[in-house]
Structure prediction request, 104 residues.
Amino acid sequence: MKIKAKTAKPKIPVKPVASKPTPTVSSPPPLASRSGSKTQACLDLLARRNGATLDELMVASGWQAHSVRGFLSGTVKKKLGLALTSTQDDGGVRHYHVPGAAGR
Prediction:
């Protein structure tokens, strides 16, 4: 019994794909939150001279502690790109502060 060798299928010509024009890079629109929103309320607290404590942010937003910490890390630092500082006073209470965030 003879085994036939497989023959290669004829190749289909590939049409070159026209490249799309690259979009012009422009600066992103300024990030701002709606007046009266929870985000804006937290940013207002963080912009104060002494900043805000976790408890103050929890009361202002109605969020639990882990949600406030996620907001500080994800929204304030990463999404908005603001410099968040954290200090601890003598009583062990941590204060969060965003310098220059009052105008946002």
Notes: The chain is about 30% helix and 10% strand.
